[in-house]
Amino acid sequence: MRLSDTTLLNNRTQRPLPLTQLGFGGAPLGNLYRRITEADAQATLDAAWDAGIRYFDTAPQYGLGRSELRFADALTRFDRDALILSTKVGRVLHDCAPQDVTPEAFVDVPQKRIVFDYTYDGIMRSYHDSVARLGTDRIDMLFLHDIDAGTHGAAGEDEKLRELFSQGGYRALTELRSAGQIAAIGAGVNTWQICERLLGEADFDGFLLAGRYTLLEQDPLDSFLPLCVARDVGIILGGPYNSGILATGAIDGARYDYAPAPDHIMDRVRKLGAVCADHAVPLIAAALQFPLGHPAVKTVIPGAANPSEVRQNVQIFETPIPAALWTDLKSQGLIRPDAPVPQEPPHAA
Fold it and tell me: Is residue 9's pLDDT more than 90?
């Protein structure tokens, strides 16, 4: 597999948005779990650029604005016309007292609290705040952030969708797209079901889906991914390691969906790892490359907290994987028999 190009279509204009199949996820640069110095953050972004990565994703949530501010510094050095940038809307950041800072998994953050707001005014406020933090008047893709039941619960998801469609949030997105201020709209979420639901309601160009189509999970093959292919809707795949276990293997303390992995997941990962070992392929390489076998999946965006992690991601992405590995995973029932698998070269532009 090579760090090659792909495209995501703006379905309204059929304008292709060029992406690299390996992108850069900006959550770690918001000081996810630990503090990263400004120098290390910029060196990490430079390493991604130098490696040929040209798709970068961030969000207001990541460090309560810190990730976007760090991207702003990098954008002054990068050729803005040569990259695709995405961020997210739906979380509005408000100044607050220290004791009211929104508790998150990010450390050393500004004094901000998060208010979820998917109304017209909320989407516009979130967008313009991001433009100000990023220091650019052009954001290529704008994703509704965490509008799904995973964040709000089933009843909350229904409420937020009503907010989006009856109180003008979706209208705000389409106005920004029609005005050329953004090129594509979608949602950045942790469940595929909300993406399918959104496609039943309106016109979206793509989705940033965290996990849910991985070596461990292929349920979207039943209905969602075929719908994406039929509608020319592209998927950007975050979380290809299911929050850790497909990177670390079934070690003590391995995490699956941000919690300690249950026994049945540990057992399956051991079996996946054994097949990979038989073919001298690291499990992490198979996990990173597997989603790109599906034609709806345009890019994968693992995060990185330092330049060495960027280089490791590129090395993993470019690790050769024999076709026999995928065949063995299917024959042993470890991935679905109908799962498309990566070819050489994958989705070459």
Answer: no
| Residue 12: strand, helix, or coil | coil
Q: What is the mean pLDDT of the chain?
A: 95
Tell me the average pLDDT across 152-159.
97
Token duo for residue 265: 């997941």
Asked whether residue 265 carries a pLDDT value surpassing 70, the answer given is yes
Residues 209 and 25 sit within 8 Å (Cβ to Cβ): no
Residues recognised as catalytic: 57, 62, 88
**Alpha-carbon gap, residue 126 to 89, rounded angstroms:** 5
Per-residue exposure over 88-124, b if at least 16 CB sit within 10 Å of its own CB, e if not:
bbbbbbeeeeeeebbebebeebeebebebbbbbebbb
Which domains are seen in the chain, by residue range?
5-244+285-322 (3.20.20.100)
**3-class state of residue 75 by DSSP:** helix
The SS3 call for residue 246 is helix
Of 65, 66, 10, nearest to 42 (Cα)? 66
Cβ neighbours around 277 below 10 Å, total? 12
Q: Work out whether the CA dihedral 104, 107, 112, 118 comes out positive or negative.
A: negative
Least confident of 200-214, 290-304, 333-347: 333-347
Residue 111 predicted with pLDDT over 70: yes
For 220, phi and psi rounded to 5 degrees?
A: -60, -15
d(CA 79, CA 262): 45
CA distances from 341 to 7, 95, 249 (A): 19, 47, 21
Query: Between these two residues, 9 and 318, which has the higher pLDDT value?
Result: 318
Q: How far apart are alpha carbons 196 and 224 in whole angstroms?
A: 6
Residue 228, token pair as written in the block: 């994406």
Per-residue pLDDT at 346 exceeds 70: no
Average pLDDT estimate for 134-151? 96
